[in-house]
UniProtKB/TrEMBL annotation:
Keywords carried by this UniProt record: Isomerase
SUPFAM superfamilies tied to this protein: Diaminopimelate epimerase-like
A single MF term (Gene Ontology): isomerase activity
Similarity comment text for this entry: Belongs to the PrpF family.
Coiled-coil ranges (or none): none
Entry protein name: Methylitaconate delta2-delta3-isomerase
Protein's organism: Candidatus Nesterenkonia stercoripullorum
Entry-linked InterPro entries: PrpF-like (IPR007400)
């Protein structure tokens, strides 16, 4: 799975930033894509970039609409 994104960090927070068009072009829905990037199905997100809990795993999807 490959998709263009920015990984932004500020203080103790970090967030994926995606272009909506890139998600649509990937062939995956955001509901399929985001959990995998954060490390699901592992509950502690050890095989992705998640923060170990769902409350510390952030993503933003932007569009030009």
């Amino acid at each position: 799975m490959e998709i263009s994104a920015q990984w932004i960090r500020g203080g103790t927070s970090k967030c994926w930033v995606f272009d909506e068009a890139d998600i649509a072009a990937s062939g995956y829905s955001a509901d399929e894509l985001l959990p995998r990037l954060f490390g699901s199905p592992d509950a502690r997100q050890i095989d992705g970039v998640g923060g170990a809990t769902s409350t510390t795993s952030k993503a933003m999807i932007v569009s030009q609409g």
